[in-house]
Amino acid sequence: MMKGYVHNNLPDKAIDLFNKIENPNDVNIILLFNSCAQLKTKEALDLVKKISKQIPKSFYSNSHLLTSLLDALMKCGDVAHAESLFYSSKEKVLPMYGAMMKGYVHNNLPDKAIDLFNKIENHDDVNIILLFNSCAQLKTKETLDLVKKISKQIPKSFYSNPHLLTSLLDALMKCGDVAHAESLFYSSKEKVLPMYGAMMKGINRLNIYDNVELILSQLFISF
């Protein structure tokens, strides 16, 4: 039921149900944290802190629980608490890095997201998407150089991920490299709607109206 409430964007109902459980297990607590992450309120943050103090210490060895706790703290705006928990954790898994990077992006702290990315040894596609999102927020020459560098290093298989391609196009456009973005866009065999959106949004921002018409013509041809 709790998972269903979270899935259907009914976090308050999930929290009400959690409060009726006498001895919640780690799955119940993960779903509670997910519910609070959806609400992003002070009350939700207070509940996250309260429950995180009450749960058995053994639960902190559960990487899924830690990731959901970090995500909830970040989305509720308590960056300092999340950082303290993250850096005190001995075994950090990739989803924990992802939760922190996503939280930094959410809280408009892209520099911190990039710094954390640089500490990851083996990046997955989620980490790379979040890096591109961070660079898109900064819109500087330095971040453009970083986007280009990472885009050359990632495995070719990652380019089949439309979410990654969209975030890369968005970063290139927001950092001002229209030519590179267009080259990547037109060379992509399978274009999804968000990719068109990233290109059109970037072109509109730069007032390159002829390019908008070209993108639109490609969109209508593909359908």
TrEMBL record:
Coiled coil: none
Alphabetical list of Gene3D superfamilies matching this protein: Tetratricopeptide repeat domain
Gene Ontology biological process: RNA modification
GO molecular function, one term: RNA binding
NCBIfam families named in the record: PPR
Name under which the protein is recorded: Pentatricopeptide repeat-containing protein
UniProt source species: Rotaria magnacalcarata
